[in-house]
Amino acid sequence: MAKAKIAVVIVILALLQVSCATARKKHQPDGGSGGTSAVMTVNGFEKGGTGGGPSECDGKYHDDDDLIVALSSRWYAGGKRCQNKIRITSKDTGETVEATVVDECDSNRGCKNNIVDSSPAVWKKLGLDTKVGEVPVTWSDA
């Protein structure tokens, strides 16, 4: 009889644990996946670099050693994310880094709607080779 009671208690505890884990996942805005899926590209934010003109948020050029990004137009949200940090996680390495939004990757001028355009420093922190060009990541507001 005691063994049956112990078995019932174990089953109840296991069900509670599953129930709690499911509830936590539902309360995360991305469903618990760790962020919004995106494609990360590499960009130079220095004067004369591949990024073109100065950054949209502050009108300045930035060093390639800075942890910075440009977001696709819909994520840039008309500048609402300017100077805010986002958390980027590489799907390849599992590494995570925080970077500051300094520019828009203009979707009306050829940038896709799912781009996190980042400095070489972001790639380095994530353990990625910039020569690859594009990698899958997730991102979220930090």
Could you give a short account of the major beta sheet? 6 strands, mixed, barrel
Alpha plus pi helix count: 3
Order of helices and strands: HEEHEEEHE
User: How do the strands of the widest beta sheet line up side by side?
Assistant: 1-5-2-4-3-6
What's the pLDDT, averaged over the residues?
A: 83
Runs with pLDDT <50, length 5+? Answer: 18-32
Per DSSP E runs of 2 or more residues, the count of β-strands stands at 6
From the N-terminal CA to the C-terminal CA, the straight-line distance is 52 Å
Strand content: 25-35%
Kindly name the structural category: alpha/beta
Radius of gyration from the alpha-carbon trace, in angstroms? 21 Å
Helix content: 10-25%
Q: What form results from the Cα inertia axes?
A: elongated
List keywords for this structure.
6-stranded mixed barrel, alpha/beta, 142 residues, 3 helices
Characterization of the model:
- It is built from three helices and six strands.
- A hairpin with a 5-residue loop joins β3 and β4.
- 27% of the residues are buried.
